[in-house]
Protein 1
Amino acid sequence: MKYAALVFKNLVRSKRRTFLTVLSIAVSLFIFSALVSVPTVADQILGNTASSTRIAMHNKAGLAYSIPIAYKQRVATLPHVEVVVPESWFGGVYHEVSDQFPNLAADPENVDKMWPDWGISPSEFEQFKKIRTAALVGEETMKRFHLHLGQQIQLRGTLYPFNVTLQIVGTIGGKAPPNFLLFRRDYLEEAAGRPGVVDNMWIKVDKPESVPQVIATIDEGFANSSAETLSESEAAFIGNFLDQYRMFFRMAELLGFIVVLTIGLVAANTAAMSIRERRGEIAVMRSMGFPSRTILSLLLTESVLIGLIGGVIGCGSAYIVLKVFSIGNVGGPLGTIRMPPAVLVETLVASALIGLFSAMVPASSAARRNIVDALRTVA
């Protein structure tokens, strides 16, 4: 603590240089933490579904093709199958085209059994089963459009040539996608003229170990039919949606590390210039009896503090920007980006390492240099 005043004085002796160094580190670590947060969140989404007992069944030709609703009865009778919930994508917009968010319809009877981890209260589930126009809305969508329970909203059809008027009876939380809206499929079926097809079906089995067996039984049972099926675990199904972002995730990680490496080189050059200008001062301190290790510690402390200050500013700014971005999300995985605690720790460690290693070589050289030679060079 007795050297704290000396460290602080040296930090502010060249305010412009210190400010610009902190700013450059802050900008680089802002970019680093924002970019690295993207793939981390994707891994977290997949991790939450890795042990799921849910299976997604859809047309083998692709998600754009439907499957007959009659498949539900056959699947429901298979061993290990507990619940089957047909689902159809509506894809409506709230007000404008920019107001899009994921909205779909599902059979209401077993929604609570299929998704008990969605944080929906039993009373809200009962309301969903009872009211024909009921809707369950994700927490982020509620905040985005300032919605409230009991409110009636209208979604304009894009895939369907009609609108639906819905009453919000509950919110979706827990492990559910925070921007989803779910309403009753019988309401959609009636408005669409009961076509007798659905986009996909969710199947819940008794235990995770049963998932591969049930998948094989389903797809073999509907092989060579007019609508062959492709069944996947929940993790694989969600992973397919994330695959379109996979290259972007890898590029984000690579760019993040390139930015940190580049600013590390810039910080090293700045530290070398600063320490070179203070060679005479360092020589005088050593002639007064300051040990080399003490001088080295002071120089490294200054550099690490500059790095940490820049890291805190950059990481904090990235957290705020990602928070604002997620609140104004437009749907899809990138609309739910958060900064995980691991990224916060990584960023602060990176900032400290930038400060430490950028000054290590010039500080060690200056602290161990011969006093007479240093004073003669300055003179």
Protein 2
Amino acid sequence: MFRYERNGEEMFLESTLQFDTVALTERLRNALKTPPGDGGDLAMTATLRGRHPADIAEAMEGLAKPEALFVFNWLDNARAAEVLDEVDSELSRYIVNNAPPGRIAELLDTLPMDDAAELIEEAQANNPERAEELLEELATRSPEDAAEVRELLSYDDKTAGRLMTDKFVRLSGTMSVEDAFTAIRRSDPDVETLADLYVTDGGRKGREKLIGVLSLRDLVRAKPNARISQVMVPEPIAVSVDTDQEEVAQTISKYDFSAIPVLDRDGYLVGIVTVDDVVDVLVEEQTEDALKQGAVSSEAMNMPYFSVPIWTVVRSRVPWLAMLFVASMLTTVVLEENQSELDRVPVLSLFFTLLVGTGGNAGAQTISTVIRGMSLGEIRGRDAMRVLWREFGTGFMLGGLLAVVAFVRAYLMEKRIDFALVVALTVWAICAWSNVIASMIPLAAQRLKIDPALVSSPLITTLVDASGLFIYLMIAKALLAELR
């Protein structure tokens, strides 16, 4: 159990980790089937009482959209706003398009402005007229919030400008610690975090220079009459409104920040990005990377599985599959050029799958390691030779170990030392070779301004198939008497 505040009333909610969302979905469905006169309204109220918005949102995704909209309309504004922010994008768009615009605008006014901007952005992509109607409704309730949403939408997608909020505590360096506590108590109740407090030069809002940062913990420990300028950390780390969201996430992770300040293009403090937004960014980026490594284009990314039309799925996959299909013809060329050798030693073909599969697996491991290092900023373009030699050494040692196993397996099959040696040396060579090309592909893609995750895994498989067979057959020609 944990506490949750709603309209000033403290409630106790069930822990999400201990809660069965499927059961809640079924209870909601049963309440919807019961007419109000027969207790349906009471059943709905009882079912939703004390439920966390995240649980309600997940349960609603298991309902038909009209049913989910009915449940949404039943909720009070505090939970409805959070549910709207939690449900998947498809259901969110349906609710925004079908709920009364006045209520949606009221909920947008309740949400943090970065979340409100995200909902408006989704509405713009699907129904621009509806998005503008909601912004106008929001402006009648809070012109300042509507202006902030428009400003956030003016920044490029996936940048710090889109993620930031201007709801944070500002302090002056000339304040005493005691005055700072007074300022905190009087601050906007919608501030995103009190863990970090930002010290400015006292300029008007939007034209303030960031001069320091102070944690609430340090403020509590400071002497009441000390000046903020004496206890703050000067020249804090900050990002620009144009900084890519992945870089923002990496910076927060690197320095263990709970939030990071955002400066506009003129260097003025305009907002902060909090760690909860960074978690969403990391999930989004990992999803994109996983899909890209499967050669799926961005068109179908970050959309619920069942909401993506089949034709869209086909369009997102076919370009890379077609390109890789053409590239895979290299394998056919290698086999055609060496068909006579295969006819003379048919047993060679029995090890094709083992050899190219081992090379592909070794290369896939290397690519995952290198891309991770690049994502974390541990590997840069200037490190290409260091990476190459490191991965060559790794592949050489791994190949040597696997070659022993391959030698034994091939010898037990054919009882020929020369044939077993061919298989063993090929495994050794393919492991070293696949590690080398797998270490270079991501770095080359980055230099060519191509996302490494998009090209690396599919390409390594294709290249290892063709080059691995070539290496195998060349070693066989050199060592087997029948092929000389």
